[in-house]
Amino acid sequence: PESIYADLNQGTIPEADRLLRDVWPARGHPPVHLAWPLTWTEDPYSDAYWRFRFYGLRYASNLLWAYGTTDDRRYLDKLVAILRSFAAHDATRTFDRLRFDNNHAAAYRAMVLVNTYEKLRRWGRLPPDLEAGLRGSIERLGAFLFDARHYEPGYNHGFNEGAALLLVADRFPELAGAAAWRATALERLEEMIASNLDADGVDIEN
């Protein structure tokens, strides 16, 4: 229930192993080595899709999957280190439209964080400091996605933004805004189904 999309529960060992060496994937470009610790301003190829995947934390799913599959502590330790670094930056950063505050990247980041939080907590592998940091980030993402300015109806982004808001609200119902977030997410998803699917049930993206 914590992972709306199947690909959040997938990964590969080669990708996870490269992340252990700080080598990150890059579609259309060679994998790129990023210095550790991360600065959270990385943009090695000036590529919008790379930023979307990286700042959506999509690549971290490889480490979560690899640890869950192999029980190899190296993958868990690297995942926790990346998330601690992210949470520390996220707690104090300013608005960053190019990287973190891209609406679609924020939606995927919310889905990745909820999935990771829930699985690590269930496995008894979520350190208290990281739990607090991720909850803060997830709550901020709920508020961000609830804002109508960060909802993009008419193409697939709207589905992902609505799905992410629903996921945050359902998995963290105790948060102050969760009830309103859930109602709004369902309204948006109904709107997307009515306006953005053709008679065969296919998303009309172009």
Would you write up a description of this structure?
This protein is mainly alpha-helical and about 210 residues long. Helices cover about 60% and strands about 0% of the residues. It contains 8 helices and 2 strands. The chain has helices at about 15-20, 50-55, 60-70, 75-90, 105-120, 130-145, 155-170, 180-195, and strands at about 25, 30-35. It has a two-stranded antiparallel sheet. α3 runs antiparallel to α4 and α7 (about 155-170) packs antiparallel against α8. The longest helix has 20 residues, at about 75-90. It is globular. The two termini are about 30 Å apart.
Write the layout of secondary structure elements.
Blueprint: H1 13-20, E1 23-24, E2 32-33, H2 48-55, H3 60-70, H4 73-92, H5 103-122, H6 128-146, H7 156-171, H8 178-196
Antiparallel strand pairs: 1-2
Helix pairs in contact: 1-3, 2-5, 3-4, 4-6, 5-6, 5-7, 6-7, 6-8, 7-8
- Look at the structure and give the mean pLDDT: 96
What is the CA-based Rg, rounded?
17 Å
Low-pLDDT regions: none
Strand content is under 5%
Q: What is the CA-CA span between the terminal residues?
A: 30 Å
Report on the biggest sheet: 2 strands, antiparallel
Total count of strands: 2
Helix content: 55-70%
Note the total helix count: 8
The helix-and-strand class reads mainly alpha
Walk across the major sheet and give the strand order.
1-2
Shape: globular
Give the SSE order as H and E letters.
HEEHHHHHHH
